[in-house]
Amino acid sequence: MVVSVLHCKQYRQVQLMDFVVKVNSPDNCIMYRSKIGLEANTVSDGHSVSIIVQKFAIIKAFFRQPLKSSDIGIYKVGKLSKHIEICMISDTQRKYALLPYHASRKYVAVPINHSI
Predict the structure, then answer these.
(1) What is the pTM of this model?
(2) Cβ atoms 48, 76 nearer than 8 A
(3) In the chain, how many domains are there?
């Protein structure tokens, strides 16, 4: 169940099992439901907590040899979606660090913790 965002408290950060996610860069990149995005807000209706996320529209393996980078959780990401998604805390899988990729608006997303 996702909280209604009309009447809720907002938080600048959320403590998960083994990491903290914040609404500010560089601590706002997460993987949730096998998608990668940036936390825009954390909200609670008093019963459950949800994360509002702006997902990356482009998510590709960063390299393909000697194995696919997606097998170890490393992706090339880009172009943030104009739409936001609301996900439950339990949908959050990993925290990521974003490293600039060339001069484009793309990034290499590298996991900074193990899968939950």
Answers:
(1) 0.84
(2) no
(3) 1
